[in-house]
Specification:
The complex is a heterodimer.
Chain A lengths: L1 H5 L3 H14 L9 E7 H9 L2 H4 L4 E8 L7 H11 L4 E5 L13 H6 L4 E3 L3 H10 L4 E8 L4 H13 L5 E8 L2 H9 L7 E4 L1 H7 L5 H5 L5 E3 L4 H16 L5 E3 L11 H10 E3 L2 E4 L3 E4 L2 E4 L8 H4 L15 H5 L31 H9 L3 H9 L2
Parallel strand pairs in A: 1-2, 1-7, 3-4, 3-5, 5-6, 7-8, 8-9
Antiparallel strand pairs in A: 6-13, 10-13, 11-12
Helix pairs in contact in A: 2-12, 3-16, 8-13
Chain B lengths: L12 H14 L18 H15 L2 H4 L5 E4 L5 E9 L5 E2 L2 E2 H15 L3 E12 L4 H18 L2 E10 L7 E11 L15 E4 L5 H9 L17 H10 L5 E3 L5 H13 L2 E5 L7 H10 L13 E4 L4 H9 L8 E7 L5 E5 L5 E3 L13
Parallel strand pairs in B: 5-6, 10-13
Antiparallel strand pairs in B: 1-2, 2-7, 3-4, 5-7, 8-11, 8-12, 9-11, 10-12, 13-14
Helix pairs in contact in B: 4-5, 7-10
The chains are: A alpha/beta, B alpha+beta.
The complex binds iron/sulfur cluster (SF4).
The site of iron/sulfur cluster has 14 residues of chain A, from helix 15.
Organism (chain A): Blastococcus mobilis
Keywords (chain A): Iron, Metal-binding
Pfam families (chain A): HypD
Chain lengths: 379, 367
């Protein structure tokens, strides 16, 4: 635990904030420095530790597309529910995914109607269920970036090794670089830099981001998930501006290597193949941005084993998740935020996972600076 | 696609949105679902909506409308009768530190104690699945007897039903209890004032984490024991040391975060908690970190949260710490006037954030 405490030290935080305030003085051309935290894990840390209130007004954090639950389009949720409602199927999923709304309710509601939906903490748990119930078809709802894909890969390798045939994976794994590129391609881009995803980078390394600095002229600092990591990364970004540099740097050196994790990468290569395109919630189709099971693992591919509706469903009209995922609007600027769309009655996906910008803002941050000050003053 | 950063939004717009949301949150929750889902049992807004639309609607009366842990019924003597009931469906039936049997006694005894009552009598009703081993049932009954003896209550009536295989999960237990609240004692949210101090009688999250680990579906091992215990004795210790005690609640399902939210809403105050003051055992904190859950929302079965006047806080703490069940008692926060109906957490890191009602209990059946 000392390991963690070290990265939550308030004295170190004050030092970092002072440095940030100095470096960011005056903002950038009169506007605050705008840095996007790519990863939902960062969004969660930022809100959970109240980091936004510590920052000077000259630095603004913009939430990015890296929340795996948030980017799953409605049609895929409908497919998952169709799978879950098949007789003889045990459908396994991470808890968060169970509350994501499809066009006719969520997996949780399907479960209440009688579907056998079970929450698991890892794909290996799903495989265990398959071994224990050989007369049922056990399907695992795989979501996540390169962070969680290796554990799905390990599970599939084990299923093959043990000859477990009543197990399959409904893969919705996505990759981080294509949406990043899409954001950088946008004509009215006004981001100044990126806090790069820490967990994903433990797998893919730091090199795949080189293009961000080289082609698009934006600095990126791969960042850890403790609150002090975030502040240090902001310092590193601002130092680049102060020194006139534009580079890809690594703040999370205690975990991330430049070359990533070659063993995990080899496993991904073996088990998955790139889909030609994949629909992202609110962002539309992005080429080569998701992973399907490779030919070798076709027998464990739920999309091939079962007939899926595979219907593309338009996002609800009121939903502005796309804008939120791109950092174009703040969560509270969405018209239904906090009224029609709340964590209890989510309309969009960003309101479901605690890594989603809307849910994080609603549950932790729904508070103006002045209100936070009131409580401090009245005590 | 586009990624834009807006120029700073005009001052005031965000406040308008936040006010609109607060107004919306104050509305009574409406039940829109057609079937009952697990969310209706998780203690959050969905539960409130179900209770409101179905049970309050059917049974409406003054005692029930308080929606407390137990009902308070006036007696001619000036004392009040406290009456509480609860069902227990925890899985597994045994976990480090207790069983569904001891829990069924402690839970109901504690509901009574939180009303300020001295618990006296319990009923116990069993729904048993066909095929359940008699030896296991006897062991659970023995746990209940021991727990009742330790809590100073007697099980005076009961009921037994057996259902077909699959119609129940082994055994479900429902207990009800009665006790007396001495005349002149009143613990209620409307007595809470800005400046009061928030105490907790011990560490957070032990029960929820112990049960979660005992289920064995996580590849995680840690030495965590449930805190399940009867609290009536400790409550008497508190009330003797801090006679001005305003309010008490046992943070079971939904944890300390949830009961503080209920307090903030009922009393129309802000509850300001200090993260660095929250007592959490290392293995519990470690497991929560790994699972991505917040100990503030994890269930306890042998702890209470109390609000006491600031001038009595020191005496309360000393008295609690002298009792074996209160050794880890701590001051965890204070009551402020504003922002109304909000629970704030001052993070150890120096920031602050909201602690909201939990949505969709991430934990399986724990009580
Ligand atoms: S408030 Fe709801 S609908 Fe609007 S962007 Fe957020 S999640 Fe999407």
């Amino acid at each position: 635990m000392r390991f963690v405490d070290e990265y939550r030290d308030p004295a170190a935080a004050r030092v970092a904030v002072r440095r940030i305030t100095e470096l960011a003085d005056g903002g950038r051309g009169g506007l605050p420095y705008a840095f996007m935290e790519v990863c939902g894990g960062h969004t969660h840390t930022i809100y959970r530790h109240g980091i936004e209130q510590l920052l000077p007004e000259t630095v603004e954090l913009v939430h990015g597309p890296g929340c795996p639950v948030c980017v799953i389009p409605m049609g895929r949720v409908d497919d998952a529910i169709a799978l879950a409602e098949r007789p003889g199927v045990v459908f396994t999923s991470f808890g968060d995914m169970m509350r994501v709304p499809g066009s006719a309710g969520s997996l949780l509601e399907a479960k209440a109607r009688g579907a056998d939906v079970r929450m698991v903490y890892s794909p290996l748990d799903a495989l265990k269920i398959a071994e224990a119930t050989p007369d049922m078809q056990v399907v695992f709802f795989a979501v996540g970036f390169e962070t969680t894909a290796p554990s799905t890969a390990v599970t599939l390798l084990r299923a093959r090794e043990r000859g477990i045939r009543n197990f399959s994976v409904f893969s919705n794994h996505v990759t981080i670089v294509p949406p990043l590129k899409a954001i950088l391609e946008s004509p009215d881009l006004r981001l100044d830099g990126f806090l790069g995803p820490g967990h994903v980078s433990t797998v893919i390394g730091n090199r795949p981001y080189d293009f961000v600095a080289r082609r698009y002229g934006k600095p990126l600092v791969t960042t850890g998930f403790e609150p002090l990591d975030i502040l240090q990364a902001i310092v590193m970004l601002l130092e680049q501006f102060a020194e006139g540099r534009c580079e890809v740097e690594n703040q999370y050196t205690r975990v991330v290597r430049d070359e990533g994790n070659p063993i995990a990468l080899a496993m991904l290569q073996q088990v998955f193949r790139l889909r030609p395109h994949f629909e992202w919630r609110g962002l539309g189709f992005i080429a080569q941005s998701a992973l399907a099971l490779s030919e070798d693992f076709a027998d464990w591919d739920a999309e091939r084993r079962f007939d899926l509706p595979g219907v593309r469903v338009a996002d609800p009209k009121a939903c502005q998740c796309g804008e939120v995922l791109k950092g174009a609007i703040k969560p509270w600027e969405c018209k239904v935020f906090g009224t029609a769309c709340t964590p209890e009655t989510p309309i969009g996906t960003c309101m479901v996972s605690s890594e989603g910008a809307c849910a994080a803002y609603y549950t932790f941050g729904r508070l103006h600076r002045t209100a936070a000050g009131l409580a401090a003053a009245s005590s | 696609m586009s990624a834009t950063v807006h120029p700073p939004v005009p001052e005031g717009r965000q406040e308008l949105v936040l006010e609109r949301i607060e107004a919306f949150r104050r509305r009574r929750p409406r039940l829109t679902d057609e079937v009952v889902t697990l969310a209706h049992g998780a203690g959050g807004k969905a539960s409130a909506a179900l209770i409101d639309a179905v049970f309050l609607e059917a049974f409406r009366n003054e005692a029930l409308e308080q929606l407390g842990d137990g009902a308070l019924l006036p007696l001619p003597s000036g004392d009040q009768l406290a009456f509480a009931t609860d069902s227990y469906v925890v899985r597994p039936h045994r976990f480090p530190g207790g069983s569904i049997g001891s829990l069924a006694v402690h839970g109901t005894v504690n509901d009574l104690a939180m009303c300020g009552a001295r618990p006296s009598w319990l009923s116990a009703a069993f729904v048993i699945e066909e095929g359940f081993p008699v030896a296991e049932l006897a062991a659970l009954a023995a746990d209940m007897a021991a727990a009742a003896a330790a809590a100073g209550v007697t099980v005076v009536t009961g009921d037994t039903k057996v259902v077909d295989t699959g119609a129940a999960d082994g055994v479900f237990i429902t207990t009800a209890g009665v006790g007396l609240v001495p005349a002149g004692r009143r613990l209620a949210a409307d007595r809470v004032r800005p400046g009061d101090v928030v105490l907790v009688s011990g560490t957070l999250g032990d029960h929820g984490v112990a049960v979660l680990l005992a289920r064995g579906d996580l590849d995680l091992e840690a030495d965590v024991t449930s805190d399940t215990a009867p609290l009536a004795g400790l409550v008497e210790v508190l009330l003797a040391a801090a006679p001005g005690t305003r309010w008490l609640r046992d943070p079971t399902r939904g944890g300390v975060g949830t009961v503080c939210n209920e307090l903030a809403a009922q009393a129309g105050v802000a509850v300001v908690l200090q993260e660095s003051a929250l007592p959490v055992r290392r293995p519990v904190g470690g497991a929560c970190d790994l699972l991505g859950i917040d100990p503030l929302y994890v269930a306890n079965e042998g702890k209470f949260v109390a609000v006491v006047p600031a001038e009595e806080a020191g005496a309360a703490l000393t008295a609690l710490r002298a009792h074996p069940l209160g050794a880890d008692a701590a001051v965890i926060g204070r009551i402020a006037g504003e922002p109304e109906r909000i629970v704030l957490l001052e993070t150890s890191f120096g920031g602050s954030r909201i602690v909201d009602m939990l949505v969709g209990d991430p934990l399986p059946r724990i009580c």
